[in-house]
Design brief:
Four Helix Bundle (Hemerythrin (Met), subunit A), about 80% helix, HepT-like_dom, 5 helices, HepT-like domain-containing protein, mainly alpha, single chain
Amino acid sequence: MHRKEFEAEMAKLEKELEAFGHWEAQNPAAGEWEYGKLAGSTVNSVYTGMETILEAVLKQTDPPMEQDSGYHARLIKIAAIATETRDPLISEALRGLLDDLRGFRHVGRKRYGSEIDTQRARLVLHNAAKAAPVFRKEMSVIIAALEEALTIEQAEQLERRKAENHTKKRSG
Protein backbone atom coordinates (compact mmCIF):
# COMPACT_ATOMS: atom_id res chain seq x y z
CA MET A 1 0.00 0.00 0.00
CA HIS A 2 1.34 3.39 -0.97
CA ARG A 3 1.24 6.33 1.41
CA LYS A 4 -1.36 8.13 -0.74
CA GLU A 5 -3.76 5.16 -0.52
CA PHE A 6 -3.08 4.85 3.21
CA GLU A 7 -3.82 8.52 3.82
CA ALA A 8 -7.04 8.35 1.79
CA GLU A 9 -8.29 5.31 3.74
CA MET A 10 -7.33 6.85 7.10
CA ALA A 11 -9.11 10.10 6.18
CA LYS A 12 -12.31 8.16 5.47
CA LEU A 13 -12.29 6.25 8.73
CA GLU A 14 -11.35 9.32 10.78
CA LYS A 15 -14.21 11.21 9.11
CA GLU A 16 -16.60 8.45 10.22
CA LEU A 17 -15.49 8.86 13.84
CA GLU A 18 -15.71 12.64 13.63
CA ALA A 19 -19.19 12.52 12.08
CA PHE A 20 -20.42 10.17 14.78
CA GLY A 21 -19.02 12.49 17.46
CA HIS A 22 -20.88 15.44 15.93
CA TRP A 23 -24.09 13.43 15.69
CA GLU A 24 -23.77 12.27 19.29
CA ALA A 25 -23.19 15.84 20.53
CA GLN A 26 -26.22 17.11 18.61
CA ASN A 27 -28.50 14.25 19.68
CA PRO A 28 -27.98 13.71 23.42
CA ALA A 29 -31.52 12.33 23.79
CA ALA A 30 -31.21 9.80 20.96
CA GLY A 31 -32.92 6.51 21.67
CA GLU A 32 -31.14 3.22 22.08
CA TRP A 33 -32.24 1.96 18.66
CA GLU A 34 -30.91 5.03 16.86
CA TYR A 35 -27.69 5.05 18.85
CA GLY A 36 -27.16 1.31 18.36
CA LYS A 37 -27.71 1.42 14.61
CA LEU A 38 -25.41 4.39 14.05
CA ALA A 39 -22.78 3.01 16.43
CA GLY A 40 -22.83 -0.35 14.63
CA SER A 41 -22.51 1.33 11.25
CA THR A 42 -19.67 3.57 12.43
CA VAL A 43 -17.69 0.71 13.96
CA ASN A 44 -18.23 -1.33 10.80
CA SER A 45 -16.84 1.49 8.63
CA VAL A 46 -13.89 2.26 10.90
CA TYR A 47 -12.84 -1.35 11.38
CA THR A 48 -13.29 -2.16 7.68
CA GLY A 49 -10.99 0.74 6.79
CA MET A 50 -8.34 -0.43 9.22
CA GLU A 51 -8.64 -4.01 8.02
CA THR A 52 -8.29 -2.88 4.39
CA ILE A 53 -5.00 -1.18 5.26
CA LEU A 54 -3.76 -4.14 7.30
CA GLU A 55 -4.61 -6.58 4.48
CA ALA A 56 -2.72 -4.47 1.94
CA VAL A 57 0.35 -4.33 4.17
CA LEU A 58 0.24 -8.06 4.93
CA LYS A 59 0.04 -8.80 1.20
CA GLN A 60 3.43 -7.11 0.90
CA THR A 61 5.03 -8.84 3.87
CA ASP A 62 3.46 -12.27 4.28
CA PRO A 63 2.30 -15.23 2.20
CA PRO A 64 -1.41 -15.29 1.28
CA MET A 65 -3.85 -16.49 3.95
CA GLU A 66 -6.83 -18.73 3.43
CA GLN A 67 -10.01 -16.64 3.58
CA ASP A 68 -12.13 -18.94 5.70
CA SER A 69 -14.41 -18.13 8.66
CA GLY A 70 -11.42 -17.37 10.91
CA TYR A 71 -9.71 -15.08 8.42
CA HIS A 72 -10.51 -11.73 10.07
CA ALA A 73 -9.37 -12.79 13.54
CA ARG A 74 -6.27 -14.46 12.10
CA LEU A 75 -5.39 -11.31 10.15
CA ILE A 76 -5.09 -9.32 13.38
CA LYS A 77 -3.26 -12.11 15.22
CA ILE A 78 -0.68 -12.55 12.44
CA ALA A 79 -0.08 -8.79 12.20
CA ALA A 80 0.76 -8.73 15.91
CA ILE A 81 3.42 -11.44 15.81
CA ALA A 82 6.93 -11.48 14.40
CA THR A 83 7.69 -13.86 11.56
CA GLU A 84 11.00 -15.10 10.17
CA THR A 85 11.07 -12.15 7.78
CA ARG A 86 9.58 -9.25 9.77
CA ASP A 87 8.87 -7.77 13.18
CA PRO A 88 5.29 -7.43 14.46
CA LEU A 89 3.33 -4.95 12.35
CA ILE A 90 1.11 -3.83 15.24
CA SER A 91 1.51 -3.64 19.00
CA GLU A 92 -0.29 -5.97 21.39
CA ALA A 93 -2.30 -3.00 22.67
CA LEU A 94 -3.51 -2.20 19.16
CA ARG A 95 -4.19 -5.88 18.53
CA GLY A 96 -6.58 -5.91 21.50
CA LEU A 97 -8.40 -2.80 20.30
CA LEU A 98 -8.73 -4.10 16.74
CA ASP A 99 -9.99 -7.45 17.94
CA ASP A 100 -12.65 -5.67 20.00
CA LEU A 101 -13.73 -3.61 16.99
CA ARG A 102 -13.78 -6.73 14.80
CA GLY A 103 -16.01 -8.56 17.25
CA PHE A 104 -18.44 -5.67 17.59
CA ARG A 105 -18.48 -5.07 13.84
CA HIS A 106 -20.00 -8.50 13.44
CA VAL A 107 -22.70 -7.66 16.00
CA GLY A 108 -23.38 -4.28 14.39
CA ARG A 109 -23.84 -5.87 10.96
CA LYS A 110 -25.94 -8.83 12.05
CA ARG A 111 -28.35 -7.38 14.61
CA TYR A 112 -31.24 -4.98 14.68
CA GLY A 113 -30.59 -1.62 16.36
CA SER A 114 -32.81 -2.57 19.30
CA GLU A 115 -30.64 -5.65 19.93
CA ILE A 116 -27.37 -3.71 20.23
CA ASP A 117 -26.24 -3.05 23.80
CA THR A 118 -25.75 0.73 23.87
CA GLN A 119 -23.30 0.61 26.79
CA ARG A 120 -21.17 -1.87 24.86
CA ALA A 121 -21.51 0.32 21.76
CA ARG A 122 -20.23 3.35 23.72
CA LEU A 123 -17.21 1.37 24.93
CA VAL A 124 -16.39 0.05 21.46
CA LEU A 125 -16.72 3.52 19.92
CA HIS A 126 -14.38 4.83 22.62
CA ASN A 127 -11.95 2.04 21.64
CA ALA A 128 -12.32 2.95 17.96
CA ALA A 129 -11.44 6.57 18.73
CA LYS A 130 -8.51 5.35 20.82
CA ALA A 131 -7.34 2.89 18.14
CA ALA A 132 -7.41 5.28 15.16
CA PRO A 133 -4.40 7.47 16.08
CA VAL A 134 -2.41 4.45 17.29
CA PHE A 135 -3.22 2.59 14.08
CA ARG A 136 -2.22 5.65 12.02
CA LYS A 137 1.10 5.94 13.86
CA GLU A 138 2.01 2.25 13.70
CA MET A 139 0.98 1.78 10.07
CA SER A 140 2.77 5.00 9.02
CA VAL A 141 6.05 3.53 10.28
CA ILE A 142 5.44 0.22 8.48
CA ILE A 143 4.37 1.86 5.22
CA ALA A 144 7.41 4.17 5.28
CA ALA A 145 9.68 1.15 5.80
CA LEU A 146 8.01 -0.75 2.95
CA GLU A 147 8.33 2.25 0.63
CA GLU A 148 12.00 2.63 1.57
CA ALA A 149 12.64 -1.06 0.91
CA LEU A 150 10.91 -0.76 -2.47
CA THR A 151 12.99 2.30 -3.35
CA ILE A 152 16.20 0.48 -2.42
CA GLU A 153 15.14 -2.57 -4.45
CA GLN A 154 14.34 -0.39 -7.47
CA ALA A 155 17.72 1.38 -7.19
CA GLU A 156 19.51 -1.97 -6.98
CA GLN A 157 17.65 -3.20 -10.08
CA LEU A 158 18.63 -0.06 -11.96
CA GLU A 159 22.28 -0.52 -10.99
CA ARG A 160 22.17 -4.18 -12.13
CA ARG A 161 20.70 -3.13 -15.49
CA LYS A 162 23.37 -0.46 -15.91
CA ALA A 163 26.08 -2.99 -15.13
CA GLU A 164 24.56 -5.50 -17.58
CA ASN A 165 24.37 -2.86 -20.32
CA HIS A 166 27.95 -1.79 -19.61
CA THR A 167 29.10 -5.43 -19.85
CA LYS A 168 27.17 -5.91 -23.13
CA LYS A 169 28.75 -2.78 -24.64
CA ARG A 170 32.27 -3.91 -23.69
CA SER A 171 31.79 -7.42 -25.05
CA GLY A 172 29.74 -6.38 -28.11
